[in-house]
Amino acid sequence: MDLLRVLELYSGIGGMHYALKGSSFGFSFVDSLCLAAKCLSPLAESSVSAEVVAAVDVNTTANEIYKHNFTNTPLLPKTIEGMTLQDFDKLNFDMILMSPPCQPFTRIGLQGDVTDPRTKSFLYILDLLPRLSKCPQFVLLENVKGFETSAARDALLNTLRQCDYSFQEFLFSPTHLGIPNSRLRYFLIARRPPGCFSFQTSAEIMEGFPRPVSSESSDNPAVPNNHPTPSDSESKSSGPIIFKLETAQELERKRNQDSQETVRRLQEFLREDDDMDQYLLPPKTLLRYALLMDIVQPSSRRSVCFTKGYGHYVEGTGSVLQSCVDVDLESVFKSLELLSDEDKLMQLLRLKLRYFTPREIANLMGFPEDFTFPEHISVKQQYRVLGNSLNIHVVSNLIQLMMS
To answer: Is the pLDDT of residue 241 over 70?
Structure first.
């Protein structure tokens, strides 16, 4: 295949670009199929020969980080609506990689969908696609869970059908690939003739990788992957509180997650900085939010989704790490609410709870070791852009699947 020309829209800090390069810590589509399907006729592994001809984003901080890591890639710091049909045609691209703004579709947002101004650029892309002088052969889109029930998704599918694309939708979490982080997201891969997908597409949204066409027939078109690990905020449990505001069902769910041997341990992704004290949770945060935190240990095989508010907000933004593993977590929280603030703090400090560092979150999301931040980018800004990014492990495999 000739060198593919790729257009990266909503480029952020370059997650799609790294996925295109196959930077996924040794994971590949073949590896995941063999693991999940007991080597059921895996597809031949092949690298994608491609170049990003342009990246487009308006976020100044993200653009600085992108340019810091991809110095030779043309970066257009402009709105997508500010680009004309002729601008797109001049790029002569074969593939679009995009992750449109997710706020119009999130559970905790207003769910404005197509009426939200932040959806305007995406609808503009859909309007342009049929009018391009050459439709790209491949399209990959990522968004939050919730996009699959939106009017924006309906508009996307209608446009793809109009342009003669075959496509497949997925709900996919890094835990499907044995990565100990829950980040359930919607994905769509699409391609136009010539050529077709190497798997049987389904009108249903798949959870996990599809079964290769050459595999034995099955009523379920998807290979049985590691089950996605839902975040605490995505799980609903009932029953009496055991400790730390958790029910018996919640504790059992977390124990089950930690017992999944096909998922790697967090300790494989941990990297200590020179100044680790800055990541310790301050006393005020411990006293106020201790019962709400999702606490994991280096030996854990799970963590909840890291959002852009991590390090600034506590509830629902990501897991915190128990550094002192010699202390029993349940014993610390037993009858904690009956203690004075002074004694309560003494108990909590024994755990040495800390935030994951930006580098550790980047590791979980698949960013390679040579990915770095410019020196002037603050830790808070690093958390924000990582929380807005995507998991490279997942996207890299989906690109290979889309093109195989």
So the answer is: no
